[in-house]
Design goal:
This protein is mostly helical. It has a single domain (10-180), classed as Tetracycline Repressor, domain 2 (Orthogonal Bundle). It has nine helices and no strands. It has helices at 10-25, 32-39, 43-49, 53-78, 83-96, 99-111, 119-134, 140-158, 166-180. Helix 1 crosses helix 4 (53-78), helix 5 (83-96) runs antiparallel to helix 9 and helix 7 (119-134) packs antiparallel against helix 8 (140-158). The chain is elongated.
Length: 184
């Protein structure tokens, strides 16, 4: 679920409420009335910020994408702000994602067939991420393989196609970290 520092604003409370509903019940159960009630805001207050369910879903996806991207970049900055540090942050983020975040992301991904416009911010995030590693010199190939592997692991998880055991996850994490050491 989104974790904004401006959590007290009514707009953020609405996004958080929408995230909770989508995470636990799915997009099909998301209503403006339900979000307003959960956030403790009047329906008029909700409509002030979000005119439609589409607007609310768009804001939810954008918030989630921004927080995922910013979280990795903040962790990379703390570790030296190199491409390698960003890659290691992405590895850790992929393997440490909470079950709530996975559920929300999976439900939003499932809703993309009905709401294809939701994929725009996600595509931009992927584009930014792959661009970050395209200029990795002789290590570009390794960086791109690690990022693609992370995306594959995340998709298997989100779509519930395969659940890796704790031992498998740790083995993959260690291996990806070892590969990431090649990236400066």
């Amino acid at each position: 679920m989104p974790h904004s520092s401006t959590r007290n604003s009514s707009k953020q409370r609405l996004i958080d409420a929408a995230a909770k509903i989508v995470s636990t019940q799915g997009v099909q159960e998301l209503t403006l009335e339900g979000v307003a009630a959960m956030a403790g805001v009047t329906k008029g207050g909700l409509i002030y910020h979000f005119k439609t369910k589409d607007d609310l879903l768009g804001a939810l996806v954008q918030t989630m994408v921004d927080e995922l991207d910013q979280g990795s970049r903040i962790n990379a900055a703390k570790a030296g702000n190199t491409k390698g540090a960003l890659l290691r942050a992405l590895i850790d983020d992929t393997f440490e994602r909470s079950s709530e975040e996975k559920q929300l992301m999976g439900n939003l991904l499932a809703a993309a067939s009905s709401y294809p416009h939701l994929l725009g911010p996600v595509r931009q995030l992927y584009s930014r991420t792959y661009s970050d590693f395209t200029q990795s010199g002789s290590q570009t190939g390794i960086a791109m393989v690690v990022v693609a592997a992370l995306d594959g692991i995340a998709m298997l998880d989100l779509l519930n196609f395969h659940r890796f055991s704790k031992q498998q996850r740790e083995a993959m994490r260690r291996t990806l970290h070892a590969m990431a050491k090649e990236i400066i």
